[in-house]
Amino acid sequence: MPEMLMDNPVDCHDWLVVNDGTCQPCEVPAIPDSPVEPYRLYRFLTDLEDILHATPDDTQRLVQIYPLVRRLLTSSYWLQLEFVNPPAKPGWSVRSLYKEHDFLLTLQMVAWLPGNVSPIHNHGAWGVVALIGGQEKNQFWQRSPTPQHPDRIRLIGEKIFHPGDIVGFLPDAIHNVEPLGDQPAVTFNLYGVTDFSKRFEFDPIHHQARKF
């Protein structure tokens, strides 16, 4: 069992990866204590829907969503255990937590075994990833087109995330993920409505992008 978020709640940070690949600290307002405990998944979804209706800007949405995610994960401890231990092949697992036809959000728990590296990709949607267990290195990439290679990208930085860290991504932020250490990296992932025409996997060697 990896070290979980609630086992080490101190020194947690919030980050935002913008469309040029820059990963920057994010100032998140505190949420007043709720008189209702625990903070149930259905309440989180209702609060989330209110934010999406009232706030069209993706960056502002993320700033408001972060504290809801932290409250959900630290209040509803059962949710931290809703992941599938990944098999050796393919080395990762995904458990869907929510699906509704008319509310097209992706809500899932993802687990990766160390020794695996994700493709370089964007999401074509805003996203929030909260690290619950293990450690995860993210590399961040930036589009750097040339006349010969319009899909060229370049590496601009990397960061290691620890349990309790929350990172948001704007729709065209490009990254890849690598679990570190000897424990699975377990994350809570939330994504908005995906524009699949703008979601790509990138090849930095051959300077190519294909639908992901």
Short description:
The chain is of the alpha+beta class and 212 residues long. The chain is 15% helix and 35% strand. The chain has helices at residues 41-54, 58-75; strands at residues 14-17, 23-25, 92-98, 106-112, 120-121, 127-133, 135-143, 153-161, 166-169, 174-180, 185-191, 200-203, 208-211.
How is the main sheet built?
A: 7 strands, mixed
CATH arch. level architecture: Sandwich
The number of domains is 1
| Order of neighbouring strands in the sheet with most strands | 2-1-9-6-11-4-3
Shape call:
globular
Number of strands: 13
Terminal-residue CA separation: 31 Å
Helices, by number, come to: 2
Rounded average pLDDT: 91
Q: Briefly note the CATH topology name.
A: Jelly Rolls
Instruction: Write down the CATH class.
Output: Mainly Beta
